[in-house]
Amino acid sequence: MRVHAVDHPLVAHKLTILRDENTPSPIFRQLVDELVTLLAYEATREVRTESREITTPVAPTVGQKIAEPRPLVVPILRAGLGMLDGLTRLLPTAEVGFLGMQRDEETLEAVTYANRLPDDLSGRHCFLVDPMLATGGTLVAAIDYLFERGARHVTCVCIIAAPEGIDVVNRAVGDRVDVELVVAAIDERLDENAYIVPGLGDAGDRLYGVV
Ligand SMILES: O=P(O)(O)OC[C@H]1O[C@H](OP(=O)(O)OP(=O)(O)O)[C@H](O)[C@@H]1O
Ligand SMILES: O=c1cc[nH]c(=O)[nH]1
Ligand SMILES: [Mg+2]
Asked: How many angstroms is it from 6 CA to the middle of ligand 2?
């Protein structure tokens, strides 16, 4: 897996406010949206384009447009939903699939409660979005769902990743799929509850409240 940690002062600034335990939900949501917009610039670097002839008010010319089949954006519910608009704003022609997954906090296994993806993903560039990559269990299961449907090019967009989780995803995907991870920060480690340190706590709860 190719890993790209985005090194940019605006990303660092917004991430610091996001991590702060005193940042309330409305600001947290806005910052997630702004951060994903900044990450999207890097995450969409490999989107396939094709030549298109157009005529400007001055002359004919050949430009580039995003190629078919259209990219697919897949937020991993709940927390990934907070990143969806930021990505589709930059990729308005993308289609959107949904995966609802929750980590069982006892076993740390990812449990899938919703799966709404197109049946055939061959030839589609898929973007998986989820703010937190902790043990990697959720992301590995999500990549598998895409792989089973024929996807071979997957870009994961996360806000914070733990080194342990990156290793797990790396080992699980091998060279089966072309997987790339674009992330705002790679933190120190996981704690005894598999929370990212220093992290930002539970991203879903901070976005939407404790359920
Ligand atoms: O790498 P892992 O150890 O699998 O953990 C990461 C997952 O945990 C969080 O979701 P959570 O299970 O809290 O669900 P939520 O989005 O509904 O809060 C997060 O948004 C990831 O999906
Ligand atoms: O630190 C973590 C780990 C898993 N899920 C989160 O939301 N945060
Ligand atoms: Mg959660």
From this structure: 20
Convert the pLDDT of each residue in 56-107 to its tens digit.
999 999 999 999 999 999 999 999 999 999 999 999 999 999 999 999 999 9
Domain membership flag for residue 63 = no
**Structural domain contains residue 52:** no
ipTM for this model: 0.98
Residue 122 has pLDDT above 90, yes or no: yes
CATH code assigned at 41: 3.40.50.2020
pLDDT at residue 165, as a whole number: 98
Ligand 3 centroid from CA 39, angstroms: 21
C-beta of 195 in contact with ligand 2 (< 6 A): yes
Ligand nearest to the CA of 200: 2
One-letter-per-residue 3-state SS of the chain: CEEEECCCHHHHHHHHHHHCCCCCHHHHHHHHHHHHHHHHHHHCCCCCEEEEEEECCCCEEEEEEECCCCCEEEEEECHHHHHHHHHHHHCCCCEECEEEEEECCCCCCEEEEEEECCCCCCCCEEEEECCEECCCHHHHHHHHHHHHCCCCEEEEEEEEECHHHHHHHHHHHCCCCEEEEEEEEECCEECCCCCEECCCCCHHHHHHCCC
Which of 25, 36, 101 has the most ligand 1 atoms within 8 A of CB, as the residue to mutate? 101
